[in-house]
Write a structure and sequence with these properties.
By secondary structure, the protein is an alpha+beta fold. 32% of the residues lie in helices and 23% in strands.
Length: 268
């Protein structure tokens, strides 16, 4: 653990490894394994914190925070409003104020009665939310319960011929949800926050055969940079042969949902 602590962020560790292991496919594969080990070790360190909103389990190192997480909002002071944000009912002796744990605004009990798990803020127990935030949180549940598991488990893809001669590779998300790893391919990890575009292509012949029109697609192309300000890079991956195609398509769909969650205009 001593050797790890000298790097303040995983990105500094990645840059260090990239400089030392550059130009060697074998060593880049070793780098992928090293990053997986380091992120698993870092992500295993958690701390329990208590705030006005409740108990949360958060990373011990803030630099290791998942890009899918939201910061806990400040609460609107009670003195700033005398009326419910939603129904405009006036607060008084018989009508108490309640704060939505997701947006921090003040509501009456009826407009802030829903309690739901809120994984995007790492709460231990279900928390109170306004109707608007409850709807948004419910829509995100499928990602955390299903899509995120698909991403971390990984799926097999066939790389574009200009990148590798390998028959297939395993693409998966690291345990801290911050990087894409490519096992079986001499390619550096990709930081999710440095992905500039993600496009999907669908092979209609395959879709018509499988009747899977809601799949994520048959191929994907990433445009990303290795670091802030670096030149753009492109990577195209295609789903594998029939036994693996469905898993690959599901992984592409999960990746679409992940990037939509990260880069949503309104993440609150």
């Amino acid at each position: 653990m001593t050797g790890i602590l000298k790097y303040r962020t995983v990105w500094q560790l990645i840059r260090h490894l990239s400089q030392r292991l550059r130009y060697s496919p074998y060593k880049i594969r070793a780098e992928n394994r090293t990053i997986t080990e380091q992120t698993m070790e870092f992500s295993s360190f958690k701390r329990l914190v208590r705030s006005k909103s409740g108990l949360r389990i958060v990373p011990a190192n803030d630099d290791m925070k998942s890009p899918f997480l939201l910061s806990e909002p400040p609460w609107t002071p009670d003195s700033e409003t005398n009326n419910c944000t939603e129904c405009k009912s006036k607060f008084g002796f018989t009508l108490r104020r309640h704060h939505c744990r997701r947006c921090g605004l003040i509501y009456c009990g009826q407009c802030c009665a829903t309690r739901l798990p809120l994984p995007r803020m790492s709460f231990v127990d279900p928390v109170r939310m306004c109707d608007r935030c409850a709807d948004r949180t419910s829509n995100e549940q499928d990602f955390f319960e299903r899509h995120l598991k698909i991403l971390t488990s990984g799926a097999s893809f066939v790389p574009d011929s200009s990148y590798s001669r390998a028959d297939s590779l395993l693409c998966k998300l690291t345990p801290d949800h911050r990087y894409l790893l490519f096992e079986g391919m001499s390619h550096e990890p990709v930081d999710l926050l440095l992905i500039k575009s993600f496009s999907v292509s669908k092979d209609m012949e395959i879709l018509e055969c499988n009747e899977d029109y809601n799949s994520g697609g048959s191929s994907m192309e990433l445009v990303f940079s290795a670091a802030e300000g670096d030149q753009e890079k492109h990577l195209k991956l295609t789903t594998g042969p029939d036994p693996l195609r469905k898993a690959g398509s599901s992984w592409i769909l999960a990746m679409q949902q992940a990037l939509k969650l990260i880069y949503s205009i309104d993440n609150s």
